[in-house]
Amino acid sequence: MASDNIYTPRQQYVLLIVCLVGLATLILLGLGSYITAFLGAGVLYVVLRPWFAALVHRRGWSRQLVTAGLLAFAVVVIIMPFTGLVLMLVNRIRLYAQDTSQIMTVLHLIEQKTGYQFTTETNVREIIQQAVAWLSTRIPSLASGLLHFTVVIGLMLFTLYFMFVQEEAFVRGLRRYLPFRADTLQELGDSLRNTVNANVLGQALIALVQALLTTLTLQVFGVKDALFWGTLSFFTAFIPVLGTPLVWGPAAILKLAQGDTGQGVGILLVGVIVIINIDNLLRIVLAKRMGDIHPLITLAGVVLGVELFGLLGLVMGPLLLSYLIVLVGVFERENHILKRFQTEPAGPLPEPALPKLPEKGLKENRPS
Questions:
Q1: Is the domain of 234 the same as that of 334?
Q2: Are 315 and 305 in contact (CB under 8 A)?
Q3: Is 2 a residue whose pLDDT tops 70?
Q4: Number of domains in the chain
Q5: I need a surface site. Which of 74, 216, 255, 295 has the fewest CB within 10 A?
């Protein structure tokens, strides 16, 4: 019986792809505000995967028990402290946005020392409001309520749980449905691991050390709210090239403007000699163990990632650029192989081999 379908097999194939792409786009748009939960689950999976493999695959421990322990570790050691830092930063930014008198006092001191008036209270208030509005779209806890934040964290932990419990099915699905060869998947996996190690483990350790040193330095030299500015330096440390000088630099200028020359010079000396060199030293030590990412990729990735994913973009931005570089290299390699296959001459065809007759048969059929 002939089919009544009006589409040819090729049209059906094309329409099937269009339907898949359309449904995937609708799903991504629907999960737009929760996409950070899945990205965060992927990052935590890479961070915690070595411990899971050591305890489950090597020592044979219970998969569910190890997964529950890793989730508890992630909540207590990673999520809760990071959330506390973000909330502290958000609350203080709101305070400065509502009361600009402290900022204006600092600016007036600088104007008195320089003899040049470069701002007014109205301009400062507008700039601060614009900065808060920008941050409100980048920091999840500032833009959303407690319910949304709880849903994001719960969805991230729920996804991470099944990534570990059903790890074999998860990895098998990636290998089956991603349109890449095995060696390309290996390169992408290595790039993901290097980026996460460098921008999460390595950079977080460097940022923590620099934040502690910045807090201690500001506390010693009498800067108010040293704990807050040290917390802010933890986040600015993720920005390549600029980093913690965005915090202790203005603090030194403030001390110099107030007439505390010794304290201002002391902050500058500690910042330049100790804090910056600690950054360089730790990067050299950790680069061999946790992955080495070029500073230009990190800088451009941070700008791109924060614009797209908020704070999680500190990791996802450099990862996107790293994936782009890997895929460009794969395309170049595959294209080179294809061009060589198309341009090389095929050469003369080999002559067909004739069947070899037995010697006995040749002798019998030879004419006498």
A1: yes
A2: yes
A3: no
A4: 2
A5: 295
Q: Give per-residue pLDDT as tens, 197-250.
A: 776 777 788 888 989 999 999 999 888 888 888 888 887 887 766 788 888 888
Cβ within 8 Å of residue 131, ≥6 positions away: 93, 97
- Indicate whether 182 pLDDT > 50: yes
Do residue 60 and residue 165 come from a single domain?
A: yes
DSSP string, 101-128: HHHHHHHHHHHHHHT-----HHHHHHHH
**Pair 138, 230 in one domain:** no
Q: Are 275 and 248 in contact (CB under 8 A)?
A: yes
In a domain, 344, yes or no: no
Backbone angles phi, psi at 359, to 5 degrees: -65, -35
Structure tokens at 99: 């009361």
Domain ranges, residue 217: 181-339
Q: Is residue 40 part of a domain?
A: yes
CB count, 10 Å around CB of 160? 23
**How many CA atoms does the CB half-sphere of 21 hold within 13 Å?**
6
